[in-house]
Amino acid sequence: MEKKRSMSVVEKLKEHQKKEYREADHWYNLPSIRKLSRDRHRKGNQNSRSDREQLPRDGRNLIHTNPLAFLVGAVFNRGVHWKKAWEIPCCINQKGKLDASKLAKMKKSELVRLLKSLRVKPRYVDQGAETLEDVATLVERDFAGDTAAIWRDASPASVEKRLQRIRYVGPGIASMVTRILHDDCGMFRGQEQEIDIKPDVRVRRVFERTGLTNSKSENEARNAAWRLNPDFPGELDWPAFDIGGEWCVASNPRCPSCPLTAVCPKHL
Fold first, then answer.
1. Whole-angstrom Cα distance, residue 220 to residue 212?
2. Which is higher by pLDDT, 54 or 143?
3. Domain annotation covers residue 223
4. Tally of domains within the chain
5. Helix, coil or strand: residue 30
């Protein structure tokens, strides 16, 4: 019974993915940030806009057309709201420093000063400077300044291994990058079994409340995705993240209108 219910939840999550996630526009050989274009017009939320559209226009354009901006925004997706993380490369660009060759020549103290001067900063500036230093070194030293070469013609597993050489980038962030590249750029087709979820707080909350896991453990969430959707574990990531932000919120969840309500045991 438990397994049957869990599979019902998984199918509902996949259904939500197909219904609500419209693929982003693609740029030749360039990645794009997740385009969560939903156009929902829900009751009580008629003015809902896609998450991507909430970024300033110049920021959206930069993320869409500059692989280094995409990578920097992705690796700063920790400890801060997603919107702030994606704005950081835009702020660096405004300072004239969004260039791997320039960043690679800067000392850590200079990178710290740069990050402190930004309108939007990473949560941990010292760690952020080390992360930025490693990004620049990876791009310049190992990929001759070509950021997109990190993932071009590579498998998800090899891309994630490369990204985890960047300080403070763990499996979650690395998996998020490969999933975005898959969902928005059509990469890694036939290799979906290598793409994991990013078990952030929203995903873990949905997994626990629906009974897919017994706790909010990151490892348990990853294991559940591998076990229940082995052909593409990461497929469960975006719908759980979306539902965790729109309906299955931390306080006063909106269960009656939630897409999972018919199959969710509601472990609140």
1. 9
2. 143
3. no
4. 1
5. strand
Q: Per DSSP, what are the bridge partners of residue 42?
A: 45
Q: 24 vs 199, which has greater pLDDT?
A: 199
Cα distances (angstroms) measured from residue 100 to each of 67, 112, 250:
11, 16, 39
What pLDDT is stored for residue 184 in this prediction? Answer: 81
The residue-averaged pLDDT of 118-130 equals 96
Does residue 113 form part of some domain? yes
Residue type, 186: G
Domain span at residue 141 reads 27-150
- CATH code, domain carrying 105: 1.10.340
Beta bridge mates, 6: none
Cα separation values, 206 from 101, 213, 230, 239, 248, Å: 42, 9, 19, 10, 7
d(CA 77, CA 46): 28
For residues 158 and 242, give the distance between their C-alpha atoms in angstroms, rounded to a whole number.
27
| Residues with Cβ within 8 Å of residue 61, at least 6 apart in sequence | none
* pLDDT one-digit tens code per residue, 142-187: 999 999 999 999 999 999 999 999 999 999 999 999 998 998 888 9
Residue 17 within any structural domain of the chain: no
Output 164 or 48, whichever has higher pLDDT: 164
Task: State the pTM of this model.
Answer: 0.80
| Any domain includes 129 | yes
Cα 42 to Cα 49, 258, 259, distances in angstroms: 11, 11, 12
- pLDDT surpassing 50 at residue 49: no
